[in-house]
Amino acid sequence: MRKITASRSDGLSIGELSRLTGVNSETIRYYEKIGVLPKVSRGEGGHRVYSPRETRMLAFIRRTREVGFTLDDIRGLIDLGAPGNVSCCEVQDVAERHLEAIRAKIAVLKRLERLLASTIVKCSGERVPDCPIVDILDVLGTKSAVGGAGTASRSRH
Question: What is the per-residue DSSP string for 72-94?
């Protein structure tokens, strides 16, 4: 069995932190690089050593990412939660903006659901040169590619 050094006993390695939080090691390094997760001390051999503080922060980051917060929102929430900075009102503002964005996405998805459902009904299921499902997906894809502006039509050769 490997000897536990003082630096190893003081914290977790990046692999241990990854297993504990369910966040990939490369993602942890990325979060450190962009400043969402603070850079940590290095133990013997230059390996990162994580404390319970970073473990808690990373678990928080993972949960907020799972519910769709942006990295900028998360950075702001972490800053607001620092000692002496806690402001429920400011956190509420961030959460309300996020809720509005979620509701907007739901509205778009509901419109897409209705469109796709009505298009599927039009499909005969037989081999034909024109498929309403392919046509509508092509139109939607073209609109997305140009920012949703204008109309698009498929050209047939």
Answer: HHHHHHHHHTSTTT--HHHHHHH
Instruction: Answer with the one of 40, 68, 96 that is the final residue of a domain.
Output: 68
φ/ψ of residue 43, rounded to 5: -90, -165
Structure tokens at 40: 């940590």
- The answer as to whether 49 is a domain residue is yes
Nearest to 48 by CA among 71, 32, 27: 32
Count CA within 13 A, CB hemisphere, residue 54.
Answer: 25
pLDDT digits 0-9 by tens, 35-68 = 999 888 888 888 899 999 999 999 999 999 999 8
pTM summary value: 0.62
> Is the pLDDT confidence value at 128 over 80?
no
The domain containing residue 149 runs over which residues?
123-157
DSSP H or E run through 60: helix 52-66
